[in-house]
Write a structure and sequence with these properties.
With 417 residues, this protein is an all-alpha fold. It has helices spanning 5-29, 36-40, 49-71, 74-100, 110-115, 127-132, 147-150, 154-162, 166-169, 173-180, 184-198, 202-211, 220-232, 237-246, 255-268, 273-282, 292-304, 309-318, 327-340, 345-350, 359-372, 387-392, 395-402, 407-416.
Amino acid sequence: MALSAQQILRSFNSIKLSSFINAIQLTKRFPRPRKTWLQSSSAWPQMSCDNCFLQWGFKTYRTSSLWNSSQSTNSSRQENNSAQSTLLPLVNEQSEKTQKMPCSDSDLTLEELDDLPPLSPLQPLSEEEAIQIVADPLLPPDSFTLRDYVDHSETLQKLVLLGVDLSKIEKHPDAANFLLRLDFEKDIKQILLFLKDLGLEDNQLGPFLTKNYAIFSEDLENLKIRVTYLQSKNFSKADIAQMVKNAPFLLNFSVERLDNRLGFFQKELELNVKKTRDLVVRLPRLLTGSLEPVKENMKVYRLEFGFKHNEIQHMITRIPKMLTANKRKLTETFDYVHNVMRIPHHIIVKFPQVFNTRLFKIKERHLFLTYLGRAQYDPAKPNYISLEKLVSIPDEIFCEEIAKTSVQDFEKFLKSL
């Protein structure tokens, strides 16, 4: 006899229920072992696999029952309800135990957690609460000027008070980022006290730090060691202060470099210790700059200009800048003074200041003296005019004592050129 569709559904439902009950009983007798990673994970509730299985089975059973009830007739509903009434107490009891089991991270039950209202990030504020909120202006993520950060940085504010020109430092992005990361008390204060003890005045700190902000990256003990080395070479405290002021990067170099530089000038120029020390005190950039211009100029004086070694020694000890001067400028000056003005080597050696003077000034005065008939540079003849006076004295004295005329006449002559 063929079965109706409703009978087939009732039979299928009864089989599922009996299988479900058997699964529960087997699970109680033979509990499944839990995996280690679940036990160690705080994100999972600490409940037995029996309860997890029971909860899953109850949900499956309820889903199946609801589906069957929607497809069956009223009579089949009554039969299913009667069958469920004998089975539900056991399932409900287990479900209630599972729901009341506390979580590992909270004392709230699962039912209480379900009852909590969801949190909202858009909590409304009253007008009074909104007025009381004080928001600081946001720092720009990037900027072309340190001015945007001064109001927010105590370090920058104090550097400005010291006279540091941030507009020059901000041209170097790495330098600007470096200063913004410094702490005044931790990274800057001790360096400032060191520079003060070294002999720098308050009004000299600003210009010094504007040029050498990198000194804040130096270890204080290394700076002290370099000063101690210079003192061991008989540089006085005043000498060291003058050298650091005129060559701000001097103390950024290691003792080995400073020692090598001093040895180079003493050997290359064949100077004694005292003259070498006096040379670098007057021009401390010799210890910090490149040696290539120095080597090149020494060749120019000896090979191109024809000066003897002792003549070169005499000139550079008088005018140390001759060692680092521009080669083209040196060549043009020597060519004009020696070949146009006809001044011999031995007179130029006595007045090396001519190499430290702008060439147009030498030309203007020589042409004016030639116009007046007074361009006489031979010390053995009358009306001798020395190179020192020609290049060093101001226009008023030059016109009055050398040219024997007025400044107005000199200016008229210059306009006629």
